[in-house]
Amino acid sequence: MEDGYQNRTAFIKGAKDIAKEVKRQASKKVGRSVDRVSDEYSRRSYSRFEEDDDDYPMQGSQDGGYYRGDSRAANDDEGGHSDSTEGHDEDDEIYEGEYQGIPRADSGKGSLGGGPESMAAGAQQFRDVSVSEAERRKDQEELAQQYETILQECGHGRFQWTLYFVLGLALMADGVEIFVVGFVLPSAEKDMCLSEPNKSMLGLIVYFGMMVGAFLWGAMADRIGRRQSLIISLSINSIFSFFSSFVQGYSTFLFCRLLSGVGIGGSIPIVFSYYSEFLAQEKRGEHLSWLCMFWMIGGIYASAMAWAIIPHYGWSFQMGSAYQFHSWRVFVLVCAFPSVAAIAALNAMPESPRFYLENGKHDEGWMILKQVHDTNMRAKGYPERVFSVTTIKTVKQIDELVDIGTDTPVWQRYKLKIMSLSQQIRNNILACFSPEYKRTTFMLMAVWFSMSFSYYGLTVWFPDMIKYIQKQEYESRTKTFTKERVEHVTFNFTLENQIHRDGHYFNDKFLNMKMKSMVFEDSVFEECYFEDITSTHTFFRNCTFIASLFYNTDLFKYRFVNCKLVNSTFLHNKEGCILDFSDDFNNAYMIYFVNFLGTLAVLPGNIVSALLMDKIGRLRMLAGSSIISCVSCFFLMFGNSESGMIALLCLFGGISIASWNALDVLTVELYPSDKRTTAFGFLNALCKLAAVLGISIFQSFVGITKAVPILFAGGALAAGSFLATKLPETRGQVLQ
């Protein structure tokens, strides 16, 4: 064993000496390439590696295994067996070095200490990968130029407009999802007895789901296709939106909304990438901006449906006290319609031809481009025009096949496929941080984060500030009664927004009535009778109840703070929380109306950005809109009334939408097709994380100070606009 080890060490040392000599001689010759040096090293060191350095054929073995640049397979094709192995079968083949205990080059165990054959095979494989990547990059550049020419020939017409409305439904579903929880929360919090922490989690859970979904489906779309990934993601959204309208418990509702968010999270990264690959250079910026209007339409749809459905109390039914289906659940169900419609329409649309061509599927890509051409020409009245393209450049594929034998169990096959897909997705994500794209990715991360932090933080802070102003105004009208004595009186009307201190109530009846924002402090209730009481924000503090009876009320224990109950009885208390829509009738309409106006206000910004995107460029649009949005933030200091806050909300939304449109277009155009949705999904996931942080931070300052949220939002937008100017301009460039 020691002799074998010494022989092996001497052999490696001799090989290194030969390599040094070759490099020394090569340095004297001008123009001699590194590849030729490596080739000379291989020829002089190892006699069995004699194939051409520029030819790396894909070899397939009979048992289904695949090898890229495998030296053993190449030698078999060339008849290059050594004399020592001639006449042997491949399975029993004796190779040089086996007697020394050196593993085969293809055994998967070759490391730096694996012998000269494994070292040469590793060097050969490294050169194979480098050459394949270079060829793939060259193919992608040629395809990008040819693809742009083909899109010019296909023209812009009926096909693109049909796809525009189909993908618009998917984007509309994303806009609806953002508003659903906010609209149902006032009703759901009573229907499911939600505490303040639970309400906050329900408001944020959709963003967590969308964050996961954007990352997952964006990466998947680069591997299995845009159309297929979008259909799967929308299907998940539709299924769990449907379930969430029927489940009764808070935990199950939260879970369904989380998975619904995971599904819809893939909408934005896939939709923009998908549509951009059907648009020619001069149309791309404008029509991607027009597509953004469907997010606004989704918000308007959600506001209108909430306005039309939730206050209609008759649209509900219940089966005992265990199952209740109120009108807000009907609203949740209706909000799933855009997603369902998008799925149905997508089944009639083709996959992106650019995706097929990037993955070496020439015929499929050619057929779709011919379909685009023929559809547009027929619509324009030129059915006789023939699609002149016969051959399209396809990108060289890197061997990623997994050798799965026929005797492998089914579950293991799926496991291997999933592991292979996961590895490919991981490589794609890491590629976004390669030296070529690292700077672009980090700059876009900063811009996405700063814009999302300020935008979502302010858009939630605005309604909360409006509620706070309404609450202050409501509290200013509170009536206070002290030391009143009431005997033998029947109360059968609504008591609202009152404070009673040091009162004494004897033999009084409270029947079939509502108590809204009522507070009784240091009072005595003697021989009183309470029946059919419905209460909201009503509390008894430091009160004494003597010989009183409570029948069929919702006056639960938590409403009695430091109270004494002497010979008092509770019979048939109402179970759970009681949903009384009339309590928030005006507030509900105000919430829907404010969101409707805020969403509608982005229409001018959408129109302006669409018309100017290809004229002034993406960077000017992004930086200019961000700067104006930053300036508009400081006007918030003057929003001291409800109407003033609504006006400022509309102003901010109308200005900032242009920067969002420009950022979407820029993100699509800065990455190549095989990484486009992966990068977009990653950045959109970061956007949702920033939204969660912005909402949480800004909400904590409601009623405390305006200065901190304004400074945070203004600073983030200023930083984002500055960083945006450092990004490369993509106007007038072909789609990578």
TrEMBL record:
GO molecular function per UniProt: transmembrane transporter activity
Membrane protein topology class: Multi-pass membrane protein
Major facilitator superfamily (MFS) profile domain boundaries: 163-731
Keyword annotations of the record: Cell projection, Cytoplasmic vesicle, Glycoprotein, Membrane, Neurotransmitter transport, Phosphoprotein, Synapse, Transmembrane, Transmembrane helix, Transport
Keyword check for Phosphoprotein: yes
Biased composition (Basic and acidic residues): 14-24, 32-49, 69-87
Major subcellular location class: membrane
Disordered, as annotated region: 1-137
Classification via InterPro entries: LD_SV2 (IPR055415), MFS (IPR011701), MFS_dom (IPR020846), MFS_sugar_transport-like (IPR005828), MFS_trans_sf (IPR036259), Sugar_transporter_CS (IPR005829), SV2 (IPR022308)
Gene Ontology cellular component annotations, sorted alphabetically: neuron projection; synaptic vesicle membrane
Gene Ontology biological-process annotations: chemical synaptic transmission; neurotransmitter transport
Cited PROSITE patterns: MFS, SUGAR_TRANSPORT_2
Annotated localization: Cytoplasmic vesicle, Secretory vesicle, Synaptic vesicle membrane; Presynapse
Transmembrane stretches, start-end: 161-188, 200-218, 230-251, 257-276, 288-310, 330-349, 442-462, 589-612, 619-639, 645-667, 679-701, 707-725
Subunit structure: Interacts with SYT1/synaptotagmin-1 in a calcium-dependent manner. Binds the adapter protein complex AP-2.
Family the entry assigns: Belongs to the major facilitator superfamily.
Protein name according to UniProt: Synaptic vesicle glycoprotein 2A
Organism, as annotated: Nothobranchius furzeri
Gene: SV2A
